[in-house]
Amino acid sequence: MFRRARKQPLLGLDISSTAVKLIELSRTRDAYRIEALAIEGLPERAVQDKTIMDPEAVGGAIRKLVKDSGTRSKRAAIAVPGSVAVSRVVTVPANLSETELEIQIRMEADQYVPYPLEEVSLDFDIIGPTPGNPGTIDVLMAATRTENLESRVAAAELGGLQVDIVDIEPFAIENAFQELLKPRLSDISPDMGVALLDIGATVTGLSVFHQGAMIYTREHPFGGRQHTDEIMRRFQMSYAEASRAKRQGGLPESYASEVKEPFLELAAQQASRFLQFFYAAHPNVHLMQILVGGGVAAMPELADRIATSTGIETKQANPLMGMSRAARVPSRMVNEDAAAMLIACGLALRSFD
What we know:
By secondary structure, the protein is of the alpha/beta class. The chain has helices spanning 55-69, 98-112, 146-158, 169-181, 225-235, 239-248, 255-281, 302-310, 331-336, 342-348, and strands at 2-3, 11-15, 19-28, 31-41, 47-48, 51-52, 75-80, 85-93, 120-130, 133-145, 162-168, 193-199, 204-210, 213-220, 287-293, 313-316, 324-325.
């Protein structure tokens, strides 16, 4: 939403609570190609509750990420969490001049943004004419406190990147779904919905798509950090040791029964609970499929557990499926980390707007 003039290519840079993730895409005809891909872990507490606490550490991780990826681009799209942003579709007269539209949007923002407007970064996109009313247009308004935006821009700049676009995470996920996931859902009835769970380290985002549009998005306090914390507690490991063991293995035999199984059960229960919030808001929309993304989605048993708990077919969300890759892009990362790249992919797709 928040943009500067830019040149292509644009790097999708996802700053999460435990890692920074980068992807560069190119497009030929109707196919995408992965030109660069990298993930770099963050020190514990560098980002807390999606707030950057240590910009230097995050900037250093981004700098290493860029170097390891081999990309030559220095331009990036980043996103602020949905929990620190306000977005709303507003309807305004269609005959407003550009200046009048900006004034009208600020007046609308004053009603919905719970902060003084001088502390807020505000942007908007014109969606188009209001259905059934040619005299008005619908406008998507988005706002966040300027400090939320500036902390992420500063970290990216410390990493040697110029930020051209600042999006909002749910919109990046929607972009990835519409462009990369939806085209492969040929077996989905138009009248049925699809839920996308993005399970991060501390927050799970639930987005629901119905009849071609995202009709629901909400964040819930649950994520893979609970899995990591239990490994630390049970086996007397540091945060770095537990994070490495999750990815590379080497945990004691009791890990499966004492840590892994209880976490899978909890994750499935939480998924069911999150869907109940959706059904309360949209009782007439039926879900045909659940897609699971985020780092936790790499656990091979998770999709089956969620399917059993919810009674809905569940699959891993893989935004990289079917893409070719440059020789420098490790095939292991494409195969193992695809589900964690949803937000980064949605941001990288802004190159083709």
